[in-house]
Amino acid sequence: MYTKLRSVFAASLVALCATGLTGCSIPLVGQVTQTSVTDAYQAQVSALTPRVSDTSLVTPKTLTVGLTAASTTAPYATATGDAAYQGIDIDLASALAEHLGLQVKFVSVASTDALGQDCDIVMNVGAHDTSSDVSVVGAYTASATGFFTKGEGTVAKATDISGKKVGVQSGSATQTMLEESSLKVITQEYQSLNEAFEGLQKDEVAYVLCDVRPGSALAHKYSNVAFAGTIDSPSFMGVAVLSSNTELMGALDTAYKTVADKGLQKLIHTRWVGSMPSLSDQTKISDIFLNVNKTTTSTNTNTSPTDTITNSGENNGSSAGSNAAIL
After folding, report:
1. Which of 12, 180, 192, 264 is deepest in the core (most CB within 10 A)?
2. Are 122 and 242 in contact (CB under 8 A)?
3. Do the Cβ atoms of 114 and 127 come closer than 8 Å?
4. Residue 160 burial (CB < 10 Å; 0-12/13-18/19+)?
C-alpha cells in the first residue's frame, strides 16, 4: 500500500547534512494543498539531480522503500498518535534517498520478493534471510535477545543474573528461549514490554529480557535503565536490493557509506535508542547455553513470537522534525 509522507528535518539533522550531504531537502511523495508549499515542493523536485536512472527504479525519480513486519517494530518504524510511522528505518531511508537525489515513498511488503516489483529496496533485512538474487548493503542494526537492568550499562555475567527475577513478555519467543536455556532464574510474565520495564522501575524484577530492538527504544525512556548483554549472538541487518540491479546497488552502497561517514547514521541511531552500544560477540553474555531444556512438547503456546510495545509512538526518540510514513 503506497504511503502519503510528510517530512521536516530536525535542526540537528539539517546542520549535519549541510556539512556534507545535499542540503537535506528531500521531497517526499504526497499531496500538498497550500499553493506556497506546492511551489516550494516543485522547486525542490526540479532541483534534484538523480544519481540513478529511471530504468533502475520502480517509480521514476523516486526511491520506493519496502517495510516488512521487522521494520514496523520499535524503534525502526514506530506508530505515532496520528497513525504515522517514525523511526530509524524511516529516517535512514530518507537520508539515502536524499543522497541519491530522489524523492522517497514507503510501501508495506511481505518480504524481499517484492523487490523490483513493488519497491526498490527493503529495510532491516539480514543476509541470512535472502536468496542469491538479493544483496544486502550495510549493517546498520542487529537483531538479538538482550537483558536490560538498572545501572551503568556493563555486560553482565551469567552469575549476576542466575537466581534473579527476570521479566519477559508472556507467550513470546523470548520467554521460550529463556526457559530452554541453561540460565536458572525466576520468570515474571508481563502482557507487554511496557509493563515489564515498569516492573523493572518498581524493582519487581532485576532484569528484563527481550528483543533488543523494542527493548532499546523503551530503555531510552529511562535515565537509569541500561543494556546488560545478549543471551544469543547478534544477526546483522542492512538494506536489501536486487543483485541484478547493479546500477541501484552501486549507488546505494555509495550513499550508505556517505551517510555513515558523515555521522548521520549514528545521529539517527542515537536519537531513537540513545547510548545503546553496537552489538557484537563481545556484548554476548558468556556461559549461557541455549536449547539445553528443549523438549518436543511444551505448555508454552508461543502465541506472540516477537516482543511488542504498546502505544509505541510515545517517548521513542523525538517526534519533532521526524520523517513520517503513513502506511
Report:
1. 264
2. no
3. no
4. middle
In which band, very low, low, confident or very high, does the pLDDT at 296 lie, cut at 50, 70 and 90? very low
**pLDDT tens digits, one per residue of 14-54:** 344 434 433 344 445 544 445 565 455 455 656 678 999 99
CA dihedral 70, 255, 87, 133 (to 10 degrees): -10
Nearest alpha-carbon partner for 147 in 132, 125, 165: 165
Residue 87 Cα to chain centre, angstroms: 7
Q: What is the pLDDT of residues 51-87, one digit of tens each?
A: 999 999 999 999 999 999 878 888 898 777 666 788 9
**Which residues face 145 on adjacent strands?**
211
Express each pLDDT in 256-291 by its tens digit. Answer: 999 999 999 999 988 888 878 889 889 999 899 999
Q: How far apart are CA 291 and CA 93, in angstroms?
A: 37
Give me the half-sphere count of Cα atoms (radius 13 Å) on the Cβ side of residue 11.
Answer: 0
| pLDDT at 301 > cutoff 80 | no
